[in-house]
Every structure is written in C-alpha cells, then in structure tokens.
Specification:
Blueprint: H1 2-23, H2 37-40, E1 53-54, E2 57-58, H3 83-89, H4 100-103, H5 119-123, H6 138-152, H7 154-157, H8 166-169, H9 187-196, H10 210-224
Antiparallel strand pairs: 1-2
Bound molecules: heme C.
Length: 254
C-alpha cells in the first residue's frame, strides 16, 4: 500500500514539474503556455475597428460592421435625472459659422445663416453662465475646474492662465492670450470659444460636455479676479464678480 502511494506521489511530482517546464517559453516577453486564454485576454471588440477578425478567426457576420454608430442629430446623451444637470446638457443654441467646417473641422453642424463675421460670438456676449455659484457649490466647482484645466488647457494656457504653458515656452506654439486680458468678454463668449474653438485653438465640443465647459468658464474668471466666487459667511458674494454672473443664493432669514 505504502509502495503504491510512493509511486503515485513520485509520478505526480514528475507530472507537475513536466507541466511547469512545458508551459515556460524562451521568449521573455511571452507569458508561456496559457491554459485559459479567455481569462487573460478578452476579444478585442473595439469601437471604430473592423472586428471581423478576432484572434485569427474571421467572423463574416461581424466583418466591416461599425460597432459604434454616430448617434442621430440632436441626440441628448443620458445625464441622469437631476433636472439642473440635464438642463445644462441640452443642445447648445449658438451656431458656428460655415467657415468653421474648414477652419475647425466642425463638419455636419447646423451653421448660422448670418453672414456677418462673428455674429453668433457677439450674440453670445449676453449669455450668462447657467451653472450658478453659491456658498455650497463654489468650492467643488473650482476644484473640478482646476482638474479639467490641468488636463485640457494648461499645456497651452499655463498654470497661471497667463498664456505661458509649456507648449508656448518650448517655442512650439504661439498666440495664446493671458486670461487677464479677456475679462471684458461675456461668459457666453468664453463658452463659445472653448466649445467651437477660436483662431489657433481647436474646438473642445467633442471632448468636454457643456457642464464641464461652464465649469471652466468659472475657473477662468478666477484667474481674472482671485476673489471671484468667494462668499462671506452670510452667503453673500464677497466679490462683485468679473462679470455679473454670480447670482447670490442668499440663505433664508431666520
Ligand atoms: C493648443 C493650445 C490651446 C489649448 C489646448 C487651449 N487653448 Fe484656449 N486658446 C489658445 C489660443 C491660441 C487662443 C487665442 C485664439 C484667438 O483669439 O485667435 C486661445 C483662446 C482662448 C480663450 C479666449 C477666447 C476668446 O473668445 O477670446 C479662452 C477663454 C480659452 N482659450 C480657453 C481655453 C480652455 C478653457 C481650454 C481647455 C479646455 C483651452 N483654451 C485650450 C490655445 C489653446
């Protein structure tokens, strides 16, 4: 009995060592033999890719089928059920001029029929930031603005918003303005320029949603006036604001 047990133990030790040896590979970039490849790599089903071929197998029914389709015009993405958020996300009512198709790559948009240069941009001067700052939300809005700015704008506009980002100081790029010189612009104009682009700045409509752009508009105001959007303890704005967009959400009198 004991002898048989020994033989079995020895045989299984040899088998396990054998399996381990076989699964190794001389190529140091290879994981060796994969016993369950599905656990290591999922099929590469990616949008915009012809995934008719998955791991060497051609699937005729999937071949050349676009997996991500462009949504129909005026589709509003789902942003939850918070009414304030949803209202901020509704389609933008200002249109680009047809020239933006060649200057900023905005194909397939509804262009303005007004031929006056900058007509819509000038109209946007009166649009107020619909994301209204108050005592409770301002800190979070500026924090989010800082994040978005660092990820999308700082390399050109600079950490201080003075137009001296690394893209500019390296000599790769020029013509980025100092935000301080843009204080006279309306909130809507800042939004319009970020959304559709302006001059050498590209459009951000496809990269940032409208709430994020309005958040950045607040953040830009902060560069223009450090106390923009700060509140005194009674909830009134300590600052008359760069624009008059800061509506004060006064707490109810007790
Ligand atoms: C590739 C560099 C680059 C990036 C990235 C960039 N900008 Fe700009 N930005 C510019 C340039 C150049 C101008 C000047 C455009 C002009 O007036 O011709 C400008 C102008 C502006 C203006 C003034 C618009 C006006 O109406 O005069 C605002 C506001 C602005 N940018 C905000 C942003 C924000 C916010 C981001 C990030 C989401 C951003 N920019 C990303 C280069 C850039």
């Amino acid at each position: 009995m004991n002898k048989i047990f020994k033989i079995i133990t020895n045989l299984s030790a040899v088998a396990v060592t054998g399996i381990i040896m076989v699964s190794c590979s001389a190529d140091k970039d290879s994981a060796g033999l994969e016993y369950m490849p599905d656990m290591y790599r999922s099929p590469a089903i990616e949008p915009y890719v012809d995934y008719g071929e998955v791991r060497g197998k051609i699937n005729e029914t999937l071949k050349n089928t676009a997996s991500a389709l462009t949504p129909p015009k005026h589709t509003v993405p789902y942003y939850g059920t918070n009414e304030e958020d949803v209202l901020l996300m509704l389609p933008y009512n200002r249109k680009p001029s047809a020239a933006f198709a060649s200057t900023h790559g905005l194909f397939g948009y509804d262009y303005t029929t007004n031929t006056e240069a900058d007509y819509e941009y000038n109209q946007a001067a009166n649009d107020k930031n619909p994301l209204i700052l108050n005592v409770k939300n301002s800190e979070a809005i500026f924090k989010k603005g800082k994040e978005l700015f660092a990820a999308n704008c700082m390399h050109c506009h600079g950490e201080k918003g003075d137009g001296n980002g690394p893209m500019v100081t390296s000599g790769a790029y020029a013509g980025v303005p100092n935000y301080a010189d843009k204080a006279a612009l309306g909130d809507g104009q800042l939004f319009y320029s970020i959304y559709y682009g302006k001059g050498a700045m590209g459009a951000h409509a496809s990269m940032l949603n409208k709430k994020e752009i309005w958040t950045l508009v607040h953040y830009i105001r902060k560069f223009q006036n450090a106390s923009y959007g700060t509140f005194s303890p009674d909830g009134t704005s300590a600052v008359a604001a760069v624009s008059d967009s800061v509506k004060v959400d006064k707490p109810a009198k007790k």
